[in-house]
Every structure is written in structure tokens, then in C-alpha cells.
Amino acid sequence: MNLNGNAAIVTGAASGIGRATAEALADAGAQVFLGDIDKDNGEATAASIRDAGKKADFVFLDVTDMASIDAFKSEVLAKCPAVNIVVNVAGWGRIEPFVDNTPEFWRKVIDLNLMGPVAVTRAFLDGMMADGSGKVVIVASDAGRVGSLGETVYSAAKGGAIAFSKSLAREMARHNITVNCVCPGPTDTPLLARVPEKFREAFIRATPLRRLGQPSEIADAVLFFASNRSDYVTGQVLSVSGGLTMAG
Fold first, then answer.
1. CA 125 to chain centre
2. Which is the catalytic residue, given 154, 164, 203, 225?
3. pLDDT for 11-42, tens place per residue?
4. Does some domain include residue 1?
5. 191 lies in which domain range?
6. Which pTM value belongs to this model?
7. Is 232 an annotated catalytic residue?
């Protein structure tokens, strides 16, 4: 796939799925801006992409802070004339019984997984509407499609992100902007590495392909939605889960 001449932002790009997505978009020729709160790993990832002869810059971004989103937008647009690919990957969760959650935990999960994509997408829509084209991709989760034990509020937030992508797709179609959603199943990321081993083993047993997904496999799905191969695809949800949720 050829993304030469395109500029993309990727949130949560310092590690895991976000990093793999930034690498995939850059490999395809896009100028990529990596946003994350992890400055050290974000800058290291951007440097690694540049060392491979591709175009990448790290810009600090906290998707839960509107001032940070505004500063991120300003810095990105100071370095390129327009952004036409927006990929929302940043997210967070923790496996814990719902009755043990605190209101502070609820808020953090919702702010990161739902309101973050809403706010970041809104920040770049005006430019895409003015250009009459664009691609928005939201990385949600299969937890938002079918629910997940111990991730009740996380599932709710990801379900909201899915619904947001579908509704926005309807609004943006007249501007030739597509909006699609990738829903990973259990994926071998630093976040999953902090989950107790018994849960990781259970995920593998429940997955028909009997393994965890790799970040690069999620990034491949994002790359499809970000490219011209998907120009007639909008409002869709693609599960990349090794068959875990082939029904539901």
C-alpha cells in the first residue's frame, strides 16, 4: 500500500499496537506524527522510524487533556500543511471486578478509551472537511462488541467508541471522510504483559487460533482502513481476534 504524500497522526504510539501502527504507516510512505504521554519511548520509536529512512516525529500528547490535544494539533500542523489520516490507539484498562472499581477508575477508563478518541478526532476534522477527504481509524476492542469478564467499564467505553465511529461515519460521508473501527482481541502488548499469567493463558485457550495476536497484525488492519484500498468502506468494525469473537 502506498501512502506517499499523506500525513498521519497515531495516538498511543510509544509502544504496542500504536508503535506497530506508526511503523506500518511510515513504511507505506506516510509522514507520521506519534502522540503519547511516554516521551522517552515515543521519541525512541520516532528515531527508529527515521533511522529506517522514513518520516516520523514524536509530539507529546495526553488524550485526556484538551490543552494537550490543542498543543499537539498546533505542533503537528506547524510541521505539515494538513493531516489526512487520524488513528486513535491510546487506551488503558485493568482486569478487576466491577464492584471493586472506584469512580476515579471509571473516569480514567472512559476518558482514555472513549473521550480521548472523540476529542482527538474532533481536533483534526475541520482540516479534513476543508480538503474533502480523510481517514479516521479507531482502535477499540472486541470487549466493546461482546463484553469481557472483569472489564465492564472498559467494555462500555470501547462499545461507545464503536458507536461513535459508526455515527461519525454517517456524518462525514458527504465530506469523503471514512471512519472505521478495528477491534483487537487479546494482543501481545506491554499492557497485556501486566495481566496475571492465568488470564493470558485463558485468553489463548479461548482463541480458536490458540495464540495471542501480535501488534503488527492489528496494524495491518489499520493500514487497510487508512489506505485507498478502503475508499468505499466506512462505518465498519473489523475484529482481529484469532476467531475469538467470530460470532457476536
1. 16
2. 154
3. 999 999 999 999 999 999 999 999 999 999 99
4. no
5. 7-240
6. 0.92
7. no
